[in-house]
Structures are given as structure tokens and as C-alpha cells.
């Protein structure tokens, strides 16, 4: 059975790139354009894993992580942060908020899939 | 790879939007009432460009966007001020970013000296204040000389902290990942487990000892723990073949930096209005829809005619039904036109940049005020307005505004003001470019026109006629061609472009106060306001924009020229009469001028002629159908339409008719000489 992944990013380009990489690897993909939309779609998407951007309008990636970790239904879903920053402080902050891991943009499709497999224990 | 190309295209389309919101945001940042969200939005725009550019390996773009973004980050975290020093640089960076994107899109090289100069300026702004690039994460590579090909491995001691579980990481997933690297034995340290009564979820006590036989090196093993190194105790040691001594190499991952200070943006929902949902549609589809609506309107007219001839017009049910259909068709047509409509904002925003460049080039301080940028016009119109407006803005800065010295003498503010406005006015769009400059110097304009042989010396001209001289091809009011206006484009080109869009340009000027160029445009290019004229048994359409007046001439105003040439004196001008029936080869002999009507037209090139037609039928909007696509090119005809009775009517191209008749006359004159 293919796992379902919710990808949140305000850039249509990045969304498409992520969706393409994941679909090619056989995942079901749900997309959201910002944090509010992403958190709102949580019940419908019921994801096995969430990938989120950091800088987004309305609700940013930290907001997403906090909201998901605070939710009753999906508190333990792994959340990967997709970011162009590779600074340690950003990682620390993402971790502080409860992120599972991070992927630095630009990503290679194979690496992205490998990271997801690792986090999901596949 | 076609898919990647498509994504690349998508990226550039996204960039267009990002650049627009970037430019708008930067302008808003200069107003006192901007809020924090504006700065965040500006930052995000640049950040998104960077992210996408990185995905497509556009390194110049990435480097530039990154540095740009760093300064914006300083501003949004209040470590730098968006003041008079910084904002012009930000604007220039936005312009440069736009150019870099354009260059990347066309695979052409960037203007490196300019990029470098701006990067240097950004660096200066970043100065000491920026803690940019919190040292990029580079894994510490520990080199263990392993005998080649000898499968050895590692012993791992792994104790997750509570934070590991909280972060959505799963020890099982990590063990699965490790197993993929080789042969693994896992032992749970039972002695570390508390008794069940003492157990609390907050203090996890699971601890594993792992022996991994693998050909993988240390960095691969460490990669498995990449996300959890800061929330577990981890010891990784190589299995030493000939030595039983277990000397763990403890890698200290606890040195986690403190959480980022609280000046980071809060995730608070912004007060900005909810974005309305929208979809991207291929323009072809909308065009097809537009076409079908056109057909519907025509069919409705046909149906109405059939009902008339069938004598059913008295039947109230039938006429009521028909009226309803007509109204519905009209509304659908309007709605489809609204789909194609886009706010002029897109053009107006770009004009800010044009103005900045023109102001820089001339050294005149200028501000641009825009109003009515939400006014909507057809999408095709937006693209084609870009050039004429660009030229008019440059023209206003270069020619319209006086230099600082003159302005001071006249008691005007040193900074000139150019106003760009748009509004809907009686079914058309009116766009105005006005400056508060010196107005048109009419004696000088007149002199130049005389010098260039455009008018005869001593010609009587009203002030507005003098203003019109500016639109003559070959007219340039500057003795020297300046850097910005000397690009081989004159106002005549602007005028031709606007007329090609079915619009008109008017100019008004008050000495010492300024000049205003007003453009009126139809709402769409798919519909044309036309005069239906009778020509033999044919009905033809003349675009109303080229019609100046219609008249039935008095015999005294008519003049003969050679065998067949006929002229009419009209407002002190002699203008040629063109028999449209003969022009379209419908008849050989000229019709007597007493029968029929003359329509005075002015072409784009400002030639006037009187078209002789048998009669005027009506004036109405017609749906334009391309004749070239459906049939082929017809001389003197620009397009076709379908009338209510199902008849096809050709739309006359006055420009071509006048040009063709002009060359005919020259030929016949030459022959008779």
C-alpha cells in the first residue's frame, strides 16, 4: 500500500517538483499552498508523513509543526521541513518546534524518497 | 525531459507573480502605513525565487536572491531600517532580479558587472549587522582507514530521548534503515528498563546495542541518525578486527545551539484579506469559449429574424423566450470577456521601474502616482500596452518635466510628478499619463515641424493642431537624441500601436502646468464597434475608430483631378475621394457622387480620405472573425463578421484602402504625364 504524503509549500513550482518526485516513487500526494490550508486538510489527507516549507503566508512551517503536534489525531506524524537554509539555528528551531527532519532545497528526487523511506521505516 | 521543461516554465510564470508582489511590496514599504506582513511578503517573494532557482540549478540567480534576501531578513527582524538609504537599493535589486530571471528564462548571460556592483552594495548593507549564513551544516567527516574490501562494521549504542519520540521520529524506522546497510543484531538493554511502576512516558528508557556488519562507511551510518543526533545518546564505534578492546568514539551531538531568539516571525495569521481562489486556464480555451459565444449571439439574431419572417413576432411567448435568450447570451458574453479581463496593475507596476530608470538617466527627481490600477482590460491588451506606456512615461520624464533649475525658478516642487491613471468610461477604458511639467512649447514644436518640412511655413494651426504635430512620423522635439528617448521610437509609433488596439490618443497641454496624454481603448479586441455600410448588394463594416465624419457633399466642394481622380475640400484640406465599390472591384464605372454618402476616415498614418459608399445601414458592435484563418488574406480587408441575417460582412481596413488608392493615383498620374 502506498503511503500518503501531505506536502505544504507556497511555491507552485516547488509543489509540482515535490509532487512529481513523490508520485514517481509511488506515494499518494496531497498538496497545500500554505500552513492554514495544510493544517485544514489534515483530517482529509490523513497523511503518513508531512513535508512543509518554512516561509509561507498566513501560517509558516513552524506554525504547521506546532499545530500538527498539538492536534489530537496526528500528533506523531513525521514532519519533514523543506528548506533552503542549511543553518544550524534553523534546524534547531525546527527541531524545537517538533520537526522530525529536514531536507535542504534543492533536493534530488532519490534523496527525498530515501529520507522519507528512512523516516517511515520502509 | 519534457516534464522538467514544463516545470521550468511553471517556475518562470510563478516568478512573474513573485516579482509583481515584490515590486508592490517594496513600494508599500516606503509608505508610513505598511505593516510587518508587507515585509514578510517581500522576503517570501525573493525567498521563493531562490528556492525555485536552486531547483533548476540557476546559480547566478540563487546567489543574488540569497544576498538580497539576507538584507530583507535584516529589515524584517528590525536589525536594519527600511530607510532612504536602503530602499532605493532594494528597488534596484528587484529590478536586477527581474532581469536575471528574464536572462535565465532565455538562457542568456547575466549582466555580471551590474550584478556584482549590486552584490557589493548589499554586502555593505549587511555589514556587521548580519549574522548571515549561520555556518552551513557540514558533516564532520571522520576518516577511518578500513582495509579495502574487508567487510567490517560498527557497534552502536543508541538511547533515544523523549524529544526523539515527540519529533515524530521512530526508533524502529531507524533500525530498519540501519538494517538496509548490512547484517545487524540488535539487543535491547533490558537492565536499563525501570520497573513498570516507575515508568513514565516523559522518561523513555529504551536503549539498544547494535552490531552492524557492513561495507558502508561511518558517514552512511551517521546519515541514518541525521535527524535524531540532537535528541538521543549515540555512540558509534568501528569494530576492530584484531583487537577486542571496545573503545567507543563518542561523538558529541549535544552541542545544540540555543533556540533562535524571539524576534523571529510569529506564525500569527496575517490580517491580509483572504485570497480568492483562482485557476490557471489556457488562453486558447477562453478564446474558443469566446468564439462560441459569438456564434450564439449570431444564431440568436438569425433566430429572431426567422421568427419575424415566419410571422411569429406577435406571439408573446415566442418573443419573451427570445428576449430571455438574447439577454442571457449578452450576459454570457460579458462574463467570458470578464474572464479574459485583467487589472491594469500588471502594467502600472512595471511603469514604476521604467520611471526609476528614466529618472536616473535624466537626473530628474520624479515620483509616479498611479490610480485606478484595478481597472480591467482584456489580457491581450495588457501585453500590447506595455510598449506604448513605457514610451509615454519616458517621454514625460525626458520632455515633459523641466530640469530642477527651471522648476525652482517657476516655484514648483523640485520633484516632478507623473500621474498614471485608468478608469472605465462609457464602455471604454481611459488611461492617462500626465506630468506637472512645462507643457508643450508650441512655437518650438511649430518651428521644428517647419524645419523638417512637415508643414508649410505660415500654415494656420490651432494650438491643438500644433500639439498633434508631435504624433507625426519623423518628429522629435529634441535637438539631440537623448539616452532614453532616442531609441527610434516616436510618438507616432505609440499612436499606431494604440490605434491597432482600436484606441485613440489625445493630448492636452497647459503652458507651464503640464501635459496629459489620454488613451481610450475598447474593452476587448474580440468585439469591434463598427459602422455598417451598404456597397452594392454587400454590407461591409468600417471600424468606428477611423471614422471622422460622414457627409453629403455640395457640388461646389467637389473637384476633379485628371480623368478619374476626385477630391473634396473639407475644412481647408483637399482630400481624395475613394470609391469603395471600385476599390473592391464591384463595378468599373464610378458611381455619381450625388448617390450615396462620403465617410471621412483618418488612417493610422494620419492620411485622410473620403470613402464613397452607397449608404449607411447601422452602427453596432460586431464579433470579429479572422478571415485569414478561415479563408485567406483579402486586400483591403482586415477581418470578417457574421451579421444577424447570417450574412458574412467584411471588415474594411481603411489604412490599406487609402494606401492602395494612393499608389494607384500616383501611377495614373505618372501615366498621364
From TrEMBL, chain A:
Pfam families assigned to the protein according to its UniProt record, in alphabetical order: Response_reg (PF00072)
Tagged with keyword Cell division: no
Keywords (A to Z) from UniProt: Phosphoprotein
4-aspartylphosphate PTM sites in chain numbering: 53
PROSITE patterns: RESPONSE_REGULATORY
InterPro entries listed in its UniProt record: Bact_response_regulator, CheY-like_superfamily, Sig_transdc_resp-reg_receiver
Response regulatory domain segment(s): 4-120
Entry-linked SMART domains: REC
Record's signal peptide: none
UniProt-listed GO biological process terms: phosphorelay signal transduction system
Keyword Phosphoprotein part of the UniProt annotation: yes
Protein name as it appears in the record: Two-component system, chemotaxis family, response regulator CheY
Species for this entry: Ketogulonicigenium robustum
UniProtKB/TrEMBL annotation, chain B:
Catalytic activity from the UniProt record: ATP + protein L-histidine = ADP + protein N-phospho-L-histidine
UniProt KW Kinase keyword: yes
Highest taxon in the source lineage: Bacteria
Keywords attached to this entry: ATP-binding, Chemotaxis, Kinase, Nucleotide-binding, Phosphoprotein, Transferase, Two-component regulatory system
The CheW-like domain, residue ranges: 527-663
Keyword ATP-binding recorded: yes
GO molecular function, a single term: ATP binding
Domain Histidine kinase: 312-525
Modified residues (Phosphohistidine): 47
GO biological process, one term: chemotaxis
InterPro entries: Bact_Chemotaxis_CheA, CheA-like_dim, CheA-like_homodim_sf, CheW-like_dom_sf, CheW-lke_dom, HATPase_C_sf, HATPase_dom, His_kinase_dom
One of the record's GO cellular component terms: cytoplasm
HPt domain: residues covered: 1-104
E.C. number: 2.7.13.3
PANTHER family, per database record: CHEMOTAXIS PROTEIN CHEA (PTHR43395:SF10), SENSOR HISTIDINE KINASE CHEA (PTHR43395)
Function comment: Involved in the transmission of sensory signals from the chemoreceptors to the flagellar motors. CheA is autophosphorylated; it can transfer its phosphate group to either CheB or CheY.
Name of the protein: Chemotaxis protein CheA
Organism: Ketogulonicigenium robustum
Lineage: Bacteria, Pseudomonadati, Pseudomonadota, Alphaproteobacteria, Rhodobacterales
Encoding gene (name): cheA
